[in-house]
Design a protein that fits this description.
two-stranded antiparallel ribbon; about 50% helix; binds zinc ion; mainly alpha; about 10% strand
Length: about 270
């Protein structure tokens, strides 16, 4: 690697580390920090793509490498870099990634011109998706090993952003916490249902109340709607219980009914034993 390439990569990594730190601040309850996460992420993407071009030939980083005297103040843009890559082999930078990069560019412009309106969930989701696509590109087409280059303290955020499941999990945990905070237990109503429960399918505390679910709950991570811990009432006597403790009875017309220990007849059967 020549000096210019090294500079580009080093600066790219610095920007990435800043982006990760700001993303973490944003998730930590500082929504304004996402603004800076966007700016740093945009800078990282630009530099890392330029680095990729410079690694093919150092002069390719300049706007006019074939002129009699190369003007070293005029360097290529991110879009020049992407066009070059796709001219080498079509769709190396996929249409989907290009769309996200357009989004990033638009957002950066809006931030720089103070027209930015924060839509935190959209910003989070798109940054995550875009970052995963960029990582995929780097893994496929370059020798850059981001994980070994970023500072230790940003590693956890790197893992969250680079892994779709980890990202979804963190998002769901945040949503579940917010939902629970917005729906505190009603101490005057002994039959009030808890806002969130542990999901027995994926093991996360993300099973929250959901009107569209037949059980009244749906997991924000895995969409599971079942669970032995889900509150339910006996369909005969109305006693409060959980799905796991109630017996399921199939009725003559094919519908199901939940019955408690007493109403199911188990109590009498046990007593007679
Ligand atoms: Zn689940
Ligand atoms: Zn009963």
């Amino acid at each position: 690697m020549n000096t210019h390439e090294l500079d580009l990569l080093e600066n790219a990594i610095d920007s990435l580390a800043e982006a990760l730190a700001k993303f973490e601040e944003g998730d930590g309850g500082e929504p304004k920090a996402f603004k800076f996460a966007v700016l740093h992420m945009a800078h990282f993407v630009e530099l890392v793509f330029k680095h990729h071009i410079a690694s093919k030939h150092p002069l390719l980083i300049y706007k006019e490498p074939f002129s009699a005297k190369v003007d070293r103040n005029k360097t290529i843009t991110l879009w020049d870099a992407i066009n070059f890559i796709n001219n080498e082999a079509a769709d190396t930078v996929s249409p989907a990634l290009k769309k996200d990069l357009e989004w990033l560019k638009r957002l950066r412009n809006e931030i720089e011109h103070h027209k930015f309106k924060m839509e935190v969930p959209e910003v989070r989701t798109t940054i995550g998706r875009l970052f995963r696509s960029v990582i995929e590109f780097l893994e496929k087409y370059t020798d850059i090993e981001l994980e070994s280059l970023i500072p230790e303290q940003t590693m956890e955020t790197f893992q969250v952003l680079s892994n779709e499941y980890e990202f979804k999990l963190r998002t769901a945990l945040k949503e579940a916490e917010e939902f629970e905070a917005a729906n505190p237990p009603d101490h005057h109503d002994p039959d009030a249902l808890p806002a969130r429960l542990d999901c027995e399918n994926c093991g996360n505390p993300t099973l929250v109340k959901n009107e569209n679910s037949s059980t009244g709950y749906r997991c924000l991570v895995c969409d599971n709607e079942e669970g032995e811990n889900i509150p339910a009432n006996c369909d005969i006597c109305g006693v409060s219980s959980t799905q796991g403790e109630l017996d399921v009875w199939e009725l003559d017309d094919g519908r199901y009914e939940y019955r408690c220990y007493y109403c199911s007849g188990r109590y009498h059967a046990d007593k007679d034993d």
